[in-house]
Specification:
Layout: E1 30-31, E2 39-40, E3 43-49, E4 56-62, H1 81-85, E5 90-91, E6 104-105
Antiparallel strand pairs: 1-2, 3-4, 5-6
Bound molecules: fe (ii) ion (FE2).
The site of fe (ii) ion has 3 residues, from strand 3.
Length: about 120
């Protein structure tokens, strides 16, 4: 009998332009028991550090068009619609690898007026 190890965490540093890349399996929705028939939308957790460990942002990335976002108390804990939109990635056909991988772009802003909202 063999076992399979699934890596559920990754770590990277951005390049000089602040870009990063992860290759992973797209997560699915999962039930979380917060209320009746409660499902979390597909998401990926991010924990980011700026120039020091004191500048940290924890957030979640969501996928465009996921109907569960409308029902998710965590996603909707960010009251401002424009701020919520900054937590939704964009499908990137140009970066998609044919026959292998879809690509999504997710810009994360650590500080300022367009900061990516914090999420637990
Ligand atoms: Fe999660």
């Amino acid at each position: 009998m063999s076992s399979t190890s699934i890596r559920r965490r990754g770590r990277t540093a951005t390049d000089a332009q602040g870009r990063y890349k992860f290759i992973t399996v797209k997560p699915g929705a999962y039930p979380w028991g917060n209320h009746s028939n409660a499902w979390r939308p597909a998401h990926i957790h991010f924990s980011l550090f700026g120039h020091s460990f004191l500048s940290r942002l924890v957030t979640q990335m969501y996928f465009p068009g996921d109907p569960l976002m409308a029902y998710d108390p965590i996603f909707n804990s960010v009251g401002d619609e424009k701020a919520r939109a900054r937590m939704i990635s964009r499908f990137d056909l140009a970066a998609t690898v044919p026959d292998w991988a879809l690509a999504y772009e997710f810009d994360i802003v650590l500080r300022g007026r367009n900061q990516t909202p914090a999420q637990p």
